[in-house]
């Protein structure tokens, strides 16, 4: 898939490295304000990207989209792709971003759905909710809202959204089937699931699976691609697909798409 301004990551998703002694990988769904979101390890981004100190926003989004956003938005971005590029958003749609962080995808979505639409960001981290709300205020966007909560227990009514998007977050969940079931529940019939996430294209090495640091880097928790797609089908989704370029490492950034039947 060719998307202006970005290419999917070939390895991990540029989340911050885990501090020593960390025991809860889900702490890294969102980064804290002031953290350098582009502090990738050697196995995370290409050497060119690291050497040029590109942020995730610069790697994955068109300059025309992100140049108008404040640094507090772009520097908080730690995704592995650009779900907006595959979301096919239309005027008036209602959108939910799972693990919204500083809000970059929410703000770009808000421009596309317009004043008659609405975008909600869901994040489990109070600091990130506060940052995202501050960013929304700075951008004077009235159609963007942020709510504290967990993606395994989405705090919205059934059939509430037209589109669910997410950026390098679901791989961190310890209960991915629950995330898929909740996503299916809150989507309207015909609703779209459009996600950028990390997946494995081969069996996951045992030492990687056991590593806290690799959890934080969106590697250890990433499922095999067929398990990811199978989980979506089991939740009831149709037209399930993954678009990615395989690598020797076996860990890739993929665009995952699915639809709730009418």
CATH superfamily: Vaccinia Virus protein VP39
Strand order of the largest sheet: 3-2-1-4-5-7-6
Q: Class in CATH?
A: Alpha Beta
How many domains? 1
> What is the average of the pLDDT values?
81
Say how many strands there are: 7
Distance between the termini: 27 Å
Cα Rg: 17 Å
**Overall 3D geometry?**
globular
Low-confidence stretches: 1-52
Q: Any descriptors?
A:
alpha/beta, 262 residues, globular, 29% helix, Rossmann fold, seven-stranded mixed beta sheet
Summarize this entry quickly.
The chain is α/β, with parallel strands linked by helices. The protein has helices at residues 47-51, 56-60, 63-66, 71-74, 84-87, 104-113, 126-139, 176-186, 206-209, 212-216, 225-235; strands spanning 94-98, 118-123, 144-148, 161-167, 187-200, 238-243, 251-259. It has a single domain (25-259), classed as Vaccinia Virus protein VP39 (Rossmann fold), CATH 3.40.50.
Can you lay out the helices and strands and say which pair or pack?
Layout: H1 47-51, H2 56-60, H3 63-66, H4 71-74, H5 84-87, E1 94-98, H6 104-113, E2 118-123, H7 126-139, E3 144-148, E4 161-167, H8 176-186, E5 187-200, H9 206-209, H10 212-216, H11 225-235, E6 238-243, E7 251-259
Parallel strand pairs: 1-2, 1-4, 2-3, 4-5
Antiparallel strand pairs: 5-7, 6-7
Helix pairs in contact: 8-11
